Amino acid sequence: MMTFLRLIRIILVSLRYGLDELVVSGIRHPVTERLLVVLRKGRKLDMPRGMRLRLALETLGPIFVKFGQVLSTRRDLIPADIADELALLQDRVPPFPSDVAIDIVCKGLGRHPDLVFASFERQPVASASIAQVHFAVLPDGRDVAVKVLRPNMAPLIDKDLRLMRAAATLIEKLSADGRRLRPREVVAEFDKYLHDELDLLREAANCSQLRRNFAPGGPRADMLIVPEVMWDYCASTVFTMERMRGIPVSHVGRLIEAGVDLKKLARDGVEICFTQMFDDGFFHADMHPGNIYVSDDPRTLGQYIALDFGIVGSLSEFDKNYLAQNFLAFFRRDYRQVARLHIESGWVPRGTREEELEGAIRACCEPYFDRPLAEISLGQVLMRLFQTSRRFNVEIQPQLVLLQKTLLNIEGLGRQLDPSLDLWKTAKPYLERWMHERVGWAALRNGFKRESEQWAQMLPELPRLVHHQLARPDRSGETLAELQRLRLAQQQTNRLMAAIAGILAVGVAVALWAVTR
């Protein structure tokens, strides 16, 4: 019933803001033109279409807001006016009242924010789909940002997830293509990450891990700046971190005025993305422009600043190796290797003909190589691959949904910063170096080094374990005799079953003979 009521609300909100008219107006066909006349009768749709879509997503709640955030970075797939309006969802979602935020801080930290902090700004500086941010000052004078969870978020998200699960189940039952996409598993993965995002202590832990991976003073310190977590001022509904100062990555004009090299910034973004994915297996998975700043401090000018760590992704060693080999095969245009990897990994049925899959992948990807990023759309490549995958029954891997989303975000950012960036040439040297370290002599040396600590513990025990094994009594004769007894028993059982089957067959034959006389 709750799912049905939520569906009714979605339909009513869509009608209120004219989203039905928005969808139909994008279809060029004589029938849809007549349908538009009917849809517009008696309705005042004076607001621009982008504003109507944004307001509808805000009204429907956090899941829809997140959908709009991702969509806003895909200016190659949606009109500019809609993309500009949806970009407002990144950090300008309507805030909730400040007195509610103060109550949440009181419950989370056990004291009123005026007693916890030297100062606490009532007016939020940013408001997103899950939480809003207030600036504050610690008693020791350090500037911090306090993230406060929106109230009553879990029930709202659960309603939408119930609806998504019902839709996924319906798709699987009605469509063979839908079953191949495994929508219920994708929704379950989305469910997990959304509920993780509602626990700000988990987000603080994600931030701390990412900061260690790009530790100040370490070899990657000049790649990414991650704020320090103030653990004494954190709770499940309150997350306090070092205050970051910079320019939103989407404000290209301000970046140019500050003297930031946009071409280098675009290349750095690709390298940071692949470093997180393949070196660490732990990556920031919500990299829309509202969550990424660029430092304008002369000491760190042009470095990325990461914010909002509610959604992170992780990759297993198998995933990393498989993806790296796929990327390199794509970059080298070795489509036979791509097809072979898909078959060996089980993404396509074992009986798939390798040369047929190779030809289909070549037809999808070959037209996009040797072009600047301005002429390449990863979204369009994925759409063509998706169409091809239907023919070969390729299964979508739910654990890689966040990775796909992150790659699309990176493409959107790169397109804004430097339309001439060649995504393939930027990523290829990094992946070749990574594969050399994983597969060559360097990988063997690193493996020995990694395992040597365990060997140091096991080697002293080795003589005792060998002696224990050699001193064990020989029970092979007993085992052989037991196997022979089991074989004889199995043979007797088989003969008995054969006799029973013969008797039954004779009985059935006699019965049929009697009936047919």
TrEMBL record:
Domain of life: Bacteria
ABC1 atypical kinase-like domain mapped to chain residues: 89-341
SUPFAM superfamilies on file: Protein kinase-like (PK-like) (SSF56112)
Record InterPro entries: ABC1_dom (IPR004147), Kinase-like_dom_sf (IPR011009), UbiB (IPR010232), UbiB_bact (IPR045308), UbiB_kinase (IPR050154)
Annotated metabolic or biological route of this protein: Cofactor biosynthesis; ubiquinone biosynthesis [regulation]
Record-level GO BP terms: ubiquinone biosynthetic process
GO molecular function, one term: ATP binding
Pfam family, any one: ABC1
Parts of the chain that traverse the membrane: 496-515
Keyword annotations from UniProtKB, A to Z: ATP-binding, Cell inner membrane, Cell membrane, Kinase, Membrane, Nucleotide-binding, Transferase, Transmembrane, Transmembrane helix, Ubiquinone biosynthesis
CDD domains: UbiB (cd13972)
Family per record: Belongs to the protein kinase superfamily. ADCK protein kinase family.
Name of this protein: ABC1 atypical kinase-like domain-containing protein
Organism: Pigmentiphaga humi
Gene designation: ubiB
